[in-house]
Specification:
CATH class of the largest domain: Mainly Alpha
Oligomer: single chain
Helix content: 25-40%
GO molecular function: ATP binding; protein serine/threonine kinase activity
Radius of gyration: 20 Å
Keywords: ATP-binding, Kinase, Nucleotide-binding, Serine/threonine-protein kinase, Transferase
Low-confidence stretches: 1-9, 11-52, 362-372
Pfam families: PK_Tyr_Ser-Thr
Bound molecules: adenosine-5'-triphosphate, magnesium ion
Strand order of the largest sheet: 2-3-7-8-6-5-4
Distance between the termini: 26 Å
Strand content: 15-25%
Number of domains: 2
Catalytic activity: L-seryl-[protein] + ATP = O-phospho-L-seryl-[protein] + ADP + H(+); L-threonyl-[protein] + ATP = O-phospho-L-threonyl-[protein] + ADP + H(+)
Shape: globular
Enzyme class: transferase
CATH superfamily of the largest domain: Transferase(Phosphotransferase) domain 1
Structural class: alpha+beta
Length: 372
């Protein structure tokens, strides 16, 4: 240890993210079975033991209005490209709406009605998160689809997004140990997706999609852009380029060739954000420092110079050796040639060496979170 105890813009351009996706996705897409369903949906993704096929609750719009107090402004949690997220309350067994303070808290995401792309993302979210369960993926509880009203109901993540904690004033600073553990949690989530029999590429890894529970355990949210990986001996799938500037891998942006190695690149960017406390893209910093990757890379392969990128808000409270190793790992993840990037299992093996018990986790141990 040391000496003491803009939002990014989304990019999009070419063929549908669903164009060549697997049968389970296509059948849901074409038959529109979710859109017309009033009953509980059971999806049929091939998954392993840690992701049993699960059922989702189909909510009516009135139920969700009632759970989120008519989507009043005091239920507001945040807003993204898809729409607004509200806090709501439901009964933990029946999932019926309850009064605030009764039952369990949920996060209800309401699609902007005019968003066509949002409908596709909504469907992808239901399809993927409806079938995948892992302690480092946010749990999708249910959905609502009544004509143009598309909503999603998630487990509530009490501490919001990693982006908020790293970059927004007035939020609790996160310690070195917590940052390392967040990186490990994210790596576990990605490794789970990459190792599924039908491999899943997450495609939109960034600070705002990493949510933190009461104990600062991290989970991946937003599967709207996720898609199935290549099959057989193919190394990539060809798709239109969607994702977020500053995080998307260069070969993917240039050619639309998507592989799990695109997620590895984005993971490298998130590692840099955790080390430096700087945004992937920050137009307030001037041309030389606008892109975190371009600015940081020259520092990363030198153990001493590397320390110059460290977040000053950590006030030197971090393990030098850990920081140097994680910087070296970030550099590997950020290689231009995807073949030179490590896979997620290798990333995890490196990171696990630096896991440490955290002060935050000790402080908040009275709020146990599900699945840990
Ligand atoms: N399950 C949740 N629990 C608690 N807060 C949440 C949850 N999901 C989202 N939020 C809050 O709502 C905000 C908006 O989330 P949303 O996923 O819609 O957009 P985003 O990730 O910020 O942007 P983008 O549309 O580019 O993904 C998040 O930053 C977070 O603060
Ligand atoms: Mg998001």
């Amino acid at each position: 240890m040391g000496n003491c105890a803009g939002r990014s813009a989304k990019c999009a351009n070419s063929s549908s993210a669903f164009a060549s996706s697997k049968k389970s996705l296509d059948s849901i897409n074409t038959s529109n079975s979710i859109a017309s369903s009033k009953t509980t949906l059971t999806t049929s993704f091939k998954s392993d033991e840690s992701s049993p096929i699960v059922s989702l609750k189909s909510f009516t719009l009135n139920e969700l209005k009632s759970a989120a107090r008519n989507f009043r402004s005091d239920s507001y949690l945040g807003e993204g490209g898809f729409g607004i997220v509200f806090k709501g309350w439901i009964d933990e067994n029946s999932y019926a709406p309850t009064k605030p303070g009764v039952g369990i808290v949920v996060a209800i995401k309401k699609l902007k009605r005019e968003s066509f792309q949002g409908h596709k993302e909504w469907l992808a979210e239901v399809t993927y998160l409806g079938q995948l369960r892992h302690k480092n993926l946010v749990k999708l509880i249910g959905y609502c689809s009544e004509s143009d009203n598309k909503l999603l109901v998630y487990e509530y993540m009490q501490r919001g997004s990693l982006e908020n904690h790293l970059f927004k004033r007035g939020t609790q600073q996160i310690s070195w140990a917590t940052r390392v553990n967040i990186a490990i949690d994210v790596a576990h989530g990605l490794s789970f997706l990459h190792n599924l029999e039908t491999q899943v590429i997450y495609r939109d890894l960034k600070g705002s999609n990493i949510l933190l529970d009461a104990d600062f355990n991290a989970k991946l949210s937003d599967f709207g852009l996720a898609r199935n990986g290549p099959t057989g001996d193919k190394t990539h799938v060809s798709t239109r380029v969607v994702g977020t500037r500053g995080y998307a891998a260069p070969e993917y942006v240039a050619t639309g060739h998507l592989s799990v190695k695109s997620d590895i690149y984005s993971f490298g960017v998130v590692l840099l954000e955790l080390l430096s406390g700087r945004r992937a893209l920050d137009d307030g910093r001037g041309a030389a420092e606008e892109s975190l990757v371009d600015w940081a890379i020259p520092f990363l392969d030198d153990k001493r110079r590397m320390l110059r990128i460290m977040d000053t808000r950590l006030e030197g409270c971090y393990s030098k050796k850990g920081a140097q190793s994680i910087a070296a790992l970030a550099l590997e993840c950020l290689q231009d040639d995807p073949r030179n990037r490590p896979n997620m299992n290798e990333v995890l093996a490196t990171l696990e060496q630096f896991r440490v018990p955290t002060k935050e986790q000790t402080n908040y141990q009275n709020f146990p979170s599900e699945g840990r």
